[in-house]
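Exercise: predict the fold of this chain.
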Amino acid sequence: MASLILNGDTLRVNLVSKRVEVMQRIYDKNGERQVTSQVPLYAIERVVVVGRPTVTLPVLTRFLDEGIPCFFVTRYGRWRGSMLPDKNRNAGRRIRQYERGTEGEFAVGVAQRLIYAKIRNSRRVLQRLAANRECSSAPEQVSVTDDLKELAVMARSATTVDMIRGYEGMAAALYFERLGDFFPDSLPFTNRNRRPPRDPANALLSFAYTILLGEVEGAVRSRGLDAGIGCLHCDTINTPSLALDLMEPLRPALADLLVLNIVNHNMVKAEADFEVNAEDGGTYLNETGRKVFFLMYEQAMTRRFAIAKGEPHTDLRRVIEEQINIYLRMLEQDTYDDFFLLP
């Protein structure tokens, strides 16, 4: 099954028996025209609504009845919220989560492993990129990867969540500085900026993180957990803290690699696939840019790979589920395993 993306070109979405009918506006060499297509409900695993397409109430209620989660973002990639089937009825699990959320030892144990995995995956991303360009022995590459290796070990042995956040911040500064060397001149990356993103590279990164967060939050809630009770992002109000925690190891492993794949294969162009919002001055993907992004995102999420030699093949959506399984074993069984490590 796949994702149904309702982008800005969607004029109307109706329910026709057991199919979703989508009316789209298409621009081509012949001008503007309308195209209607139908997607069977059984083929839809999730729905992402971008902007304000007209989706009728029978469609939304049928998504709920069929157990299909819907995620809503603005045309500028700002997270709006989600509409999820009501499966979050495991009160005992949430009570356990609330109780353990106030335990410093538990929070540190989870945070240690999350940030160890994030820094380790960041280092692995840089190693992969350098190997592709045959610059693994470059002094700047060796220096950064050595420093990240050390910071990962330090995060793993830190005794407070604040210390772990500190090591994460140091690692992120080193990582993004080196990551910029792998962006093309046509879409350069000089530093990480957001809220709003100020250039096309950051627009892509921010959009990728937003869409990934929606998937993780939906998976968290479907397992009876409270997405607002986290260990790393626990001091932020009105934030899906646990979802943000569990996506940390996936930021470099999925989002960053995906963005670099898009820009280095010239799939988007600065002048054609981005727009500037006059209200906040930010740079965002436009309608055509979002189409390219979602196509490549879906390919990345469903591509099968082995985490280690001899291990069964998996994909990144199953990795998200396993991230939650690892957290649940920590929460309910006091079994502390490593989170996802990029092969």
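Check your answer against the key: The chain has two domains: 2-68, 91-333.
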